[in-house]
Amino acid sequence: MNGAISTLKCRNLRGTAESHLEWCPTNKTFSNETCERTCDDPDTCISSTSRTGLEKCVCVGDYMIQGEDCIPQNQCSCFAADKGTVLMNGESYVNSGCTRRSNCSNNQLMVEDSYHCSDDATCDVREGVRRCYCIDGYEGDGVTCTRKAVPKDCQELYVDGSSDGVYTIYPDGWPSGIQVYCEMESNGGGWTVIQRRSSAAVDFYRTWAEYKTGFEHPRGDHWLGNDYIHAITNQKEYSLRIDLTDSSSSSYYALYSSFSISDDAEKYRLSIGSYSGNSG
């Protein structure tokens, strides 16, 4: 019978010796449940009065009323298979892969939109809403995600009014960012510190590998790292300032009009421009 269910119930009539046979219509069952639902409005019970324990033929469980019939809910016109429930008229649903939005309109399930999440997005449910969400560092509707405006160096942070401190910058080729100390309040501000050496507390007699990747925290004495310095100095034109203090606390500086280093393959070859300053 194509999965249909018919129920035959035998009931003794009170006060008599008679037995009464009663057939329930297809897919209905004898029950004292009071919540029957329809395909048109699956979230609302249409049987609101109590039956005081008396069993009747009802359309309950995984069945719903459509017209005069009691049918499995997956045969309702607006049944969303991926969700496993029937949508209300006007309700939309995004499938688990975030590739399709369906809408129940005039009791018909229609594909409203087909799409794919951006490579820089993930399909997720947040605050009860499933859709494509851009990953950290990107913004957009999830289908299209663009990189947020992020600082490439301390100069770009300086323009935004930042003060001295450790910040994360995003030079070309480093989408996860690099922590650097930004000197914002002296010598015009906007300086990205690549080395600080103020005492003998930190050992600067290191290996090639250590100078390649950097050592110590940028808040104190440290070397930023040749790979990072290469990434920073090859995305724009930079100048280099070296500040020195001698044992008598006298200050000197050297300023070079341009500064960059090559990559590991070229042994981080140094390129500097013309000199000015008072360091001799």
Automatic annotation (TrEMBL):
InterPro entries: EGF, Fibrinogen-like_C, Fibrinogen_a/b/g_C_1, Fibrinogen_a/b/g_C_dom, Fibrinogen_C-term_domain, NELL2-like_EGF, Ser_inhib-like_sf. Keywords: Disulfide bond, EGF-like domain. The keyword Disulfide bond applies. One of its GO terms (cellular component) is extracellular space. Pfam families: EGF_3 (PF12947), Fibrinogen_C (PF00147). SMART domains: FBG. It comes from the Eukaryota. Residues 145-280 form the Fibrinogen C-terminal domain. PANTHER family: FIBRINOGEN C-TERMINAL DOMAIN-CONTAINING PROTEIN-RELATED (PTHR19143:SF458), FIBRINOGEN/TENASCIN/ANGIOPOEITIN (PTHR19143). This is Fibrinogen C-terminal domain-containing protein. The lineage of its organism: Eukaryota, Metazoa, Echinodermata, Eleutherozoa, Echinozoa.
